[in-house]
Write a structure and sequence with these properties.
The longest helix has 27 residues. The protein has nine helices and eleven strands.
């Protein structure tokens, strides 16, 4: 089930069989986690990083009044907290948004991997750099885009990320996210989120039913979003 991680890394550079085996050796036993569970706690000091094998997670920060801002959505194949290996103490939490399968990567094993596999280390470093690029795009969306453009950008991004790991294609993706979750991503009320989805349906840009999104007009969605996938580094280019 680490195939989604392999798909993502191979999209960016050649991944040798030895590197695939090294990644598998880093991972501990898989664990099934239901939706709505914290797998990383704010201010915790984990001794392992977590690979999301299947499902959806969210990185979030909570305020004193209980408000929550989601700062990134994680999809299958993502190391949701690889940076904890060097950062040590977490400044955010990670919660499951659907039933998930996760696998731990103990920091001691990651340290050995970085010493023995320099090319693979650079690929994993690239993964954390792309996380930062995603955060920059989200900040731009939050601060400067209209609500409809922000929603369109999020959908374009998620489709491309799911496509990269083999979980989306032909402009169709499974997206089991509630409107409350989307509100915490976009900084909007659930009523406003519902209105945005209705507008995209009315414009015949997409259909969205029971967690299944079909993009009927990719070019129009991408134009509304001003979407440029450069930040996702989807091309194969040696590191």
């Amino acid at each position: 089930m680490a195939e989604t991680l392999f798909n993502k890394l191979s999209r960016r550079d050649t991944l040798s069989e030895a590197e695939r085996l090294a990644l598998l050796e880093v991972l501990g036993p898989e664990r099934h986690v239901p939706a709505g569970v914290d797998i990383v706690t704010e201010h915790d000091r984990p001794d392992h990083s977590i690979l999301l094998m299947s499902g959806f997670c969210a990185r979030y920060v909570t305020l004193e009044d209980g408000g929550r801002q989601i700062s990134e959505l994680n999809v299958s194949g993502d190391f949701v907290d690889l940076h904890s290996f060097v950062m040590k103490q977490m400044d955010h939490g990670v919660i499951t948004l659907s039933d998930c399968v996760i696998a731990p990567a103990p920091h001691a094993r990651l340290r050995d991997l970085t010493e023995q596999h320099p090319h693979l280390t650079r690929l994993l470093w690239l993964d954390t750099v792309i996380d930062a690029a995603i955060h920059r795009q989200w900040i731009t969306c939050m601060g400067r885009r209209t609500a409809s453009s922000h929603m369109a950008h999020l959908l374009c991004e998620l489709y491309k990320r799911l496509e990269a790991v083999g979980l989306a294609g032909a402009c169709v993706m499974e997206l089991p996210l509630t409107q409350a979750v989307l509100g915490d991503v976009l900084g909007l009320s659930t009523v406003h989120v519902n209105r945005l989805i209705s507008e995209l349906r009315t414009l015949q840009i997409l259909t969205w039913s029971q967690g299944r999104v079909e993009i009927l007009a990719w070019d129009r969605l991408a134009e509304l979003a001003e979407f440029d996938p450069t930040y996702l580094r989807l091309q194969c280019e040696p590191v």
